[in-house]
Amino acid sequence: MIKKIFTLYLFVLCSAYGIAQNPEFNFVENKYLDYFKMQPEVIYTQTNKSKYLRLEELWFKSYIYNPQTQKPYLTTSNIYASIYDSDGILIEKKMYYAENGITHGNFNLKENYAPGIYFLKVSTNWMKNFNDPHHSLQQFEIIGTESESEKTADSEQKYDFQLLPEGGHILQNSKNSIGFKGTDINGNPLIVTLGKVINEKGDIISTFKSNEFGIGKFSIFIAENDTYHVEATLENGTVIKKPLPDAEIIGLTISVNTLNQNTLFVSIKTNNKTLPYLLNKPHYLLIHRDGLLKKINLEFKPNTLDYTIAIPKTDLYDGVNILTIFNDKNQALLERIIFNRTENLIHEVSFLGKKTSYDSTQIRLVSDKKNNLKKYMSVSVLPAGSESYDTNNTITSSFLLQPYVKGKIDNPHSYFKDNNRKTNYNLDLLLLTQGWSRYEWNNIFFSPQIAKYNFESGFQIQGKINEPNAEDYKEIVLFSANNELMLSTEVKDSYFTFDHLSLMDSSVVSISAKNKRGKLTTPKVYYNVYPTFIKDSLNTENLINKAVNIISNTDSFIYDDSITELDTVMLKIKKESRQEKFMINGGVNNRSVDLKTVYSFSTRILDVIRSNGFDVIESGVSINILSRRSSNLQGRLNPNVYLDGILVSDQLELIQYLTVADVEKLFVAKTGYGMDGAGGTINIFSKDGSRSKSNPKGKFSSNTIKIGYSMPKSYYAPMYNTAKRIAFSKFGVLNWIPNITPNKNGEYIFNIPNYFYEDVLLYIEGMCEDGSLISKVETLRLQ
């Protein structure tokens, strides 16, 4: 039968693919391409769980994705993470640094957080440009004795049973495909064991049943001047009766068959009353997604009511494809969302094994393929009986489905767990019942998206020298030991700017100016740091989901503020790590200078450098350090001088007043042999609290900035009272690994503590550098 249909309507297919290559676009295509010329970002955020105690911290990992290219979004580095209460009032906001399209962080829930419902929003500045910004928004809950589950008011409508025509319309005197979806008052699926379509005479026209998600479809011929209703029998014997939506007299219908492995079949039907309005008028089918589109011309023929288009799946886009039929007036008539599953979309990770020791169990995961790709994964480990994780929040659903549909997607793991006929059919049923896509054609035609907001990459300092003789200052110097910065910029008409700075929250920034003679001074300087936090709010209307029952006596669930270290990540830069990081400067020639036994505390570091193989020439504020090695054609060379890892060779005033008492370590290399400075290398590491002394005689004015990147902390777990077994199994967390990396064998290894449980759940989410996504729920038996 399929072969006969394909042959009969081959003229449609041939005509279509000739037109699809035509570079000339009409009003719709031009508006569509213009609307998506700015590529939007989509953010997915995984939290370690969704229900917390007041003594815990919320830990999260965010992934930034380009839906058009289906790859990590690398442009933005400034990521805003905000928490709002149930009324949408901003409680706390932080900024985190994103690299390779990922970032992670945490919020301490000890203060300012009463028991109740909250929202975590993760967004970017660039997202503000779009009519439908795809930030991530997650509801979470703080449980405690003060909160109670919200009681839902009694309602006569105990069930939500919807009849949803495929493509959006039902047509008289034509065969129609109609989807249905049923849920109870709590959003649980209604399983239809037997459904009937009955006409006004009481005849059963069609029968149906639902899948395990309460979704299904049926096909019927709608006769003119007849009425129909549906009777759906549920598992508990309840019968739901619902009339079929009114059929239109004139129009089109669409039905799509996605089950063929190689070909997508699109069936378009009309009736005899409509056909005269279609003849000799151009109609076309757009296949599109995120600014990508292909066009297929439709030609209606006399005496022909049914048309089938066969489209090779290799001509479809990976993932979601939106099929929209337009008439000669550029009006969208029908729309259907389908999903084209390809191997490029999903990356598999499998459980490899476990090893149990006295106090912990080692878990080993392995990537099934593409081992040469960089993979970024986060894992939350909870007891198998946990009630504190949002299972409807997955990276695959957030990136591959949610940006295109208006409704909520339940059980998203079920649609990507494998690639078989049943799973693909269920996914197609889901998309059929979602109706028209999230794109609004009125917005595409009449509300273009304009780039009012820029990508944010780091911070900017803009300032002005506010003195009558501002023209005497030619250069501004910025120094920040906390941020390992030593920069200078030109002053133009008393104004100056530093761009793309990496500044930590609450760090100290010092600024000075150089006059025409090169002398550092401190004129009156006013400056601002951009971007700044804007105190916004969140519209929480229709956002709050029904709360679960709250346990009591949660104070006894956690002992105190003691912490149990699990998987640690070194985030604070200690003296030793700073020295190890920068000891490449000078290579193997580095020699440690004995400061304690050879020199007095008051000896200047410049004098120590002079006594260790270098000439130091001082002329007022001007300082020059030269190697004593034999001259080359360029004369004697200058060494590279580092202060706490920052190159200060051109700002030696910073070390002019340092003494031995201020310095922890000094390393000198008289020659770099090509590894660093040819004239040698000098590494100076100051003691804690002494950096301010490196500012020569207060020639720098210092301020603590109020905005900067928050530094993610190493994960720690509170001291749970694991004797409270029922409470712990529901609300405890065993580990959170935001950045799990492979060993040399490509294995991903982490530990979880041994408590009383037998089974644990691993919630694994991630993204590869090629954009393929990782999403898996693994149940492990440990005992």
TrEMBL record:
Gene3D superfamilies: 2.60.40.1930. Keywords: Signal. Residues 1-20 form the signal peptide. This is TonB-dependent receptor plug domain-containing protein. It comes from Bizionia echini.
